[in-house]
Amino acid sequence: MEARAVTKYIRISPRKMRFVIDAIRRKPVSSAFAILEHLTNKGARLAAKTLKSAQANAKVKKMVEDRLFIREIKADGGPSLKRFMSRSMGRADQILKRTTHLTVVLGEREMPVSQPGIEPKEGKAKGFNILKKEKKTKAAVAGAAR
Fold first, then answer.
1. Tens digits of per-residue pLDDT, 61-107?
2. Burial group, residue 21, by CB count within 10 angstroms (0-12, 13-18, 19+)
3. Separation between Cα atoms, residue 58 and residue 70, nearest integer Å
4. Backbone phi, then psi, for 5, in 5-degree steps?
């Protein structure tokens, strides 16, 4: 299951927004909010608003908030406002005021995001090797061969 939020026609260039969203891609929602809170960019405030909207949509779909992570986040270019600035000798230069369409898709992990002091249970989480393999020394191998 996934929850999505889209904000269109944001008055910031997609390039500037991508610097912000690269910092939070594939992160848990709680971590993403903490990262965005400490960034000073305009894009961080706008991304936080869209992320908050996606989180609210997930709540409506009855998704577990502890398991939410950012599955996909992208900043696509929207229409550009074209303006002209006068230059010397009767010339004019074009200025493009770019806009962005920001899309946030939240997914739900199989296990809740690990929190300090809580260890995942054996065999439940993928990627965790809880049972450590014992290293066999030469003496142990020779003793087992007898």
1. 999 999 999 999 999 999 999 999 999 999 999 999 999 999 999 99
2. buried
3. 12
4. -140, 140
Residue 54's Cβ-count burial label (10 Å; 0-12, 13-18, 19+) is: buried
Distance CA 73, CA 103 (A): 6
Options 3.90.470.10, 1.10.10.10, 3.40.50.1240, 2.60.40.2250; CATH for 2-114 is: 3.90.470.10
Total-model pTM: 0.73
Check residue 28 and report its DSSP letter.
B
> Which bin fits 40, alpha (ψ -120 to 50), beta or left (φ > 0)?
alpha
Tell me what pLDDT residue 25 has. 95
Res. 129 pLDDT band, cuts 50 70 90: very low
